[in-house]
């Protein structure tokens, strides 16, 4: 495979050449042709307009009739390990961006048919429709206005984890076939980031408002000593830690769990809301009224004792008839509200980044069926996005690079 011209994407202002960047991330690959195809795939992701199929990527970067087959082989069949590349991507990103938080995003990847690894039918509350899709769970480093994907997990429903033939065809390793829900993938990502980062761990922020297993994630993060801020369902069962809330109203028995929003409404009925100031997307500020209270999970025991986890619930209090605001929970109970409120906007930034990845970087376009192939693609698109945002690369018009890549 002979690289076009210098074999590098343009690096404005003398910044990192793409070949240097790829060598840093994929230098662990044992063969030189693998490293060249990694560069070629990233060049294609950055250069190809529209759908990022392997065929279109190959046509953008090469005139060789065998380029498409070789690129497909590299992504879907070549047994290279993607984990060292993600470790290097995390290191590279942390050297160039100051993390404000880790955020978690769910990527819904619509698919046709039943053969793409992990594909299943899933109801999407936001759209009110049931989709045939894959679900990727991504970890992003949030730098305040910019989020960079650094790690991914693929949700495998029962029909994929429990079917030996499907697992064999999709090359799903045994370690990935254990029972994994969204919350356990998030814990796995949190553990992986904690073991690999070279910086102080920032809070983890995630939108769990459509998940039924939020309590398991809260408990798991609390046991790990990880700071977090989560959007939660209004119906999340909690118990108040207010002294007056230890028993059932008018009765001797212990208090029953209430939904998070119901508990806040009851506990805040006799006191004024907290007023804070938040920044808007256009740089202005606006006052908000915050309803807040301390709570615990029902299965966690009383509110006293060294092992008890106490959480702060809060939401914006809006006029009657207005759309309900999101419900948040955090274990950072000693942080001021003006420190917590900026973090509540990060899930929106994550959603915007996922849209950008789908529109410009091929998030929705992986056509292979194998588990390793999916992770190879997600690793390379994450690398392309980081390079685009941090090394100054711009999306190039089609055929901005001369062809010349040839099959190895």
From TrEMBL:
InterPro entries: IS701-like (IPR039365), IS701-like_DDE_dom (IPR038721). Residues 24-279 form the Transposase IS701-like DDE domain. Residues 243-282 are annotated as: Disordered. It comes from the Bacteria. PANTHER family: TRANSPOSASE (PTHR33627:SF1). This is Transposase. It comes from Streptomyces kasugaensis.
């Amino acid at each position: 495979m002979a690289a076009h011209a210098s074999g590098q994407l343009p690096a404005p202002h003398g910044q990192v050449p793409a070949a240097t960047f790829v060598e840093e991330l994929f230098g662990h690959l044992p063969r030189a042709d693998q490293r060249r195809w990694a560069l070629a795939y990233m060049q294609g992701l950055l250069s190809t307009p529209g759908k990022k199929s392997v065929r279109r990527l190959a046509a953008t970067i090469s005139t060789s009739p065998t380029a498409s087959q070789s690129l497909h082989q590299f992504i879907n069949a070549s047994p290279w390990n993607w984990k060292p590349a993600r470790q290097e991507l995390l290191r590279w990103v942390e050297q160039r961006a100051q993390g404000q938080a880790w955020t978690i995003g769910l990527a819904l990847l619509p698919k046709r048919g039943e053969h793409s690894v992990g594909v299943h039918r899933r109801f999407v509350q936001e759209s009110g429709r049931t989709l045939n899709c894959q679900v990727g769970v991504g970890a992003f480093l949030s730098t305040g206005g910019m989020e960079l994907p650094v790690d991914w997990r693929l949700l495998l429903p029962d029909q994929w984890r429990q079917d030996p033939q499907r697992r064999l065809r999709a090359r799903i390793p045994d370690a990935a076939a254990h029972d994994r829900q969204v919350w356990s993938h998030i814990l796995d990502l949190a553990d992986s980031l904690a073991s690999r980062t070279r910086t102080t761990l920032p809070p983890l922020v995630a939108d769990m408002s459509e998940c039924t297993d939020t309590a398991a994630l809260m408990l798991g993060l609390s046991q790990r000593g990880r700071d977090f801020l989560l959007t939660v369902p209004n119906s999340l069962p909690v118990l108040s830690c207010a002294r007056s809330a230890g028993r059932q109203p008018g009765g001797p028995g212990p208090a029953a769990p209430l939904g998070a929003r119901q508990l806040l409404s009851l506990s805040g009925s006799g006191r004024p809301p907290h007023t804070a100031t938040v920044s808007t997307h256009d740089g202005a500020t606006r006052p908000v009224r915050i309803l807040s209270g301390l709570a615990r999970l029902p299965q966690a025991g009383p509110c006293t004792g060294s092992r008890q986890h106490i959480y702060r619930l809060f939401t914006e209090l809006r006029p009657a008839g207005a759309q309900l605001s999101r419900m948040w929970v955090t274990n950072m109970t000693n942080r001021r509200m003006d420190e917590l409120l900026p973090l509540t906007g990060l899930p929106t930034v994550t959603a915007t980044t996922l849209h950008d990845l789908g529109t410009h970087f091929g998030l929705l376009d992986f056509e292979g069926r194998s588990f390793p192939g999916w992770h190879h693609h997600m690793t390379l698109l994450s690398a392309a996005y980081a390079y685009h945002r941090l090394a100054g690369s711009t999306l190039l018009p089609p055929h901005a690079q001369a062809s010349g890549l040839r099959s190895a």
